[in-house]
Amino acid sequence: MLPTATRSEDPAESNRASGVNRVAGMLMGSLIGDALGGPVEFREFDQSESQSGLANARKWDAERVLDDSVLKQLSDSLVMASYEILRPDAAAYGPWRAKAKAGTITDDSRHKIVVMRALRKMLAGDKDRITSRDLARELIEFRPRLDRPPSAATAELVEEGLREYRYASRWLLGERENAYPVERLWAGVSNCSGQMALLPLAGLFPGDPQIAYRETFEIDFLDAPIARDICSALNAALASSLDPKLNTASPQQRWQAMLDGLKTDPFRFGDVPYAGRQLDRWIDLSDSIVQRAEGHPATIYRLLEQEGKPVYYWDAHFTLLVPLTMLKACRFNPLAAMHLTLDFGHDSDSYAQVLGAMIGAVHGTNLFPSRMVVAVADRLLADFGESVDHWQVTVAAAAKRWKRRTMR
Asked: How far apart are CA 7 and CA 5, in angstroms?
């Protein structure tokens, strides 16, 4: 299913988004998606609209469909909730603060901090790329703030939240005490670990989907093989949409580039006899669900749950299938798709951080309401001493350094 222009795409009408702005949009969009999804992650579906701020489309009348007016309502009513009422407790894979403020990130974005710190160390030395070993070291050494030690309570959350990754990291680095084979990580489940951590790498290879795929695949020790393919293809898709040649293109053209980039397959998974590429199956299913649902969100939700076949709602194929389906269902209205993704529920922060990266890469930072940008920037700085502005500079510098390697 190809993107078509839509009158309801008000926040995204402008084509004036430079490559630098869209890389920043990809980074900030992923953080915003995570912060939007965190408070409503695995929420109860009987919550009122006032509690969640969401549309509760599972309860809509059959006559209410995703027409232009409804898409605009969904876009305009997107809110960033705090955790205070919905998820007040600190959690290893959620917020590391009790009664966390709006804009607080979860593990989906903390993994990106790991990658960004590895890139900064690369730039401080004489290396021209990071490796899986660099990633492993950062996971072992990770603490929220580099300028001060964490409290005892936070240190416990850090250890619990990163324990499985640290087992695998130590094994990769040659240790055998308090370490387990990488293949044991999350019991070998093809989950979304790579998608949480490695999306920033797409900004290093704008317009080079083949290189983005290969470099991501080589670094990604966090994922089982199928999940590595999905994560690498997603980065190829993001890199395609970030192509500098598309700086003056329409959002529709950038979406087409992203969909084409998602099919990047340098290792020819699609040519495996009798099996083919699992990613192709899920891309086709997203089209099929949208066509059969005929604009009814509740039907989309039901088909995703039944035919998306998640063993866990954080399966790698599902964390891509959900945002991709919502984009197509909303005719690529970015903020309406975000609202519908959050309203779907389950592992909402994972779906939304992927979607946020996608819509940010196409539309740039101006897509996102300033109140959301400020809330996320404030919490990122207060909780982790990190800045998206600094991330953007790091990605640009790393891209230049890395390009020297790929051109040899």
From this structure: 7
Q: What is the pLDDT of residues 24-36, one digit of tens each?
A: 999 999 999 999 9
In whole angstroms, what is the distance from residue 133 CA to residue 268 CA? 26
Helices (H) and strands (E) in the chain, counts: 17, 0
Tokens describing residue 348: 């909402």
Global pTM?
Answer: 0.95
Structure token pair of residue 356: 């946020």
Q: What does the alpha-carbon distance between residue 265 and residue 28 come to, in Å, rounded to a whole number?
A: 27
Q: Tokens 């099929």 belong to which residue?
A: 288
Candidates 142, 132, 105; CA nearest to 30 is 105
| Cα 396-400-402 angle, rounded to 5 deg | 110
Q: Mapping DSSP to helix (H, G, I), strand (E, B) and coil, where does residue 255 land?
A: helix
Half-sphere exposure at residue 167, Cβ-oriented, CA atoms within 13 angstroms: 13
| Of the candidates 258, 185, 259, the residue with the CA atom closest to the CA atom of residue 227 | 185
Contacts of 331 (CB under 8 A, 6+ apart): 3, 4, 6, 8, 9, 66, 71
Buried b (16+ CB within 10 A) or exposed e, 207-231: bbbebbbbbbbebbbbbbebbbbbb
d(CA 43, CA 38): 10
In sequence order, what DSSP letters do the residues of 351-400 get, joined into one string?
Answer: HHHHHHHHHHHHH-GGGS-HHHHHHHHHHHHHHH---HHHHHHHHHHHHH
- Rounded distance, CA 22 to CA 399, Å? 15
- pLDDT band, very low/low/confident/very high, at 15 (cuts 50, 70, 90): low
- What are the residues facing 315 on neighbouring strands? 191
Structure confidence at residue 3 as a pLDDT band (50, 70, 90): low
Q: Give 191's strand partners.
A: 315
Q: Which CATH class is domain 10-406?
A: mainly alpha
> Worst-scoring range by mean pLDDT, 39-43, 44-48, 305-309, 391-395?
44-48
Which is higher by pLDDT, 179 or 82? Answer: 179
